Amino acid sequence: MIGRNWIMLLVAIGVGLIAVVLANSYFSGIEAEQERLAEQQEVARIVVATQPLEFGTAITTENTRMQNFPANSVPTGAFFSVEELVQGGQVAIRPIVPGEPVLADKLSGRAVLSANLPDGMRAVSFPVNATTMVSGFVRPADVVDVLMTRGEGEDRIVEVIMESVPVLAIDQVANENATEPGVGGNVTVMVDQYDAQKITLARQLGQLSLALRNVENQEPGPGIAVSSRDIGSGYRPPVRTAYTEPRPSAPAAPRAPSAAPAAAPARPSGPSMTVVRGTDTADYSVDRLGGR
What we know:
Organism: Croceicoccus marinus
Number of strands: 12
Distance between the termini: 185 Å
Largest sheet: 6 strands, antiparallel
Structural class: alpha+beta
Strand content: 25-35%
Protein name: Flp pilus assembly protein CpaB
Pfam families: RcpC, SAF
Order of helices and strands: HEEHEEEEEEHEEEE
Domain SAF: 44-108
Region (Disordered): 218-292
Radius of gyration: 45 Å
């Protein structure tokens, strides 16, 4: 009985080893076939994601794979080996969807917000709450206007100090796919150095608020400060229209000189008589009696 059990165990182990060898051969054959097809069809083999990669996700062999891609359309920064990519210890700093090529500009050696900043730009934070951040619906990757409220009483005014500002993070959340509203705390925006100084000073002069705007509408607003005197006044700033050069008016045609009025017929001096013939009249002089 014991010998029979050992025989069955050895047979099972042998069958398992054969299955592993056959599976490896099968997948190796598929890989070789894909490489052969890539060479024949002039396509490249690049690394793509197999699952959603959020900010800070480590790149591993489980969430990436090789995929054929047209050789003349390979994006800049693509990787041609999963092993080389994994050994670098890279993490995602921007969201990557399944099937999307893994590019160098979406990876970093460590998940830091500074890796998302273009050259010359700065990240600056200021406090907000659920009210001043549109009930918490401002999320990373949104575009906002920054408003400042300052003054007291009738001198209180609200000014738009910055327009079309990209939001990088809300508190410690920098994931663009995070759409759940938050209660606020701190908002981090991306601006240049001059605007970073403006926000830092404005934070000390008054209260900062956010106005959520359409990311596809970057037209500047009227930029007019609103004071407490404007509340209920019915005043609205004029709508901006594109300036057009006035068209020159056509010169007025010279007026023809009016004809001089016909001179009235001279009336005879002295005694006269009027003779009417139909509609015509004529005046005649009459010599005085005894006159020559």
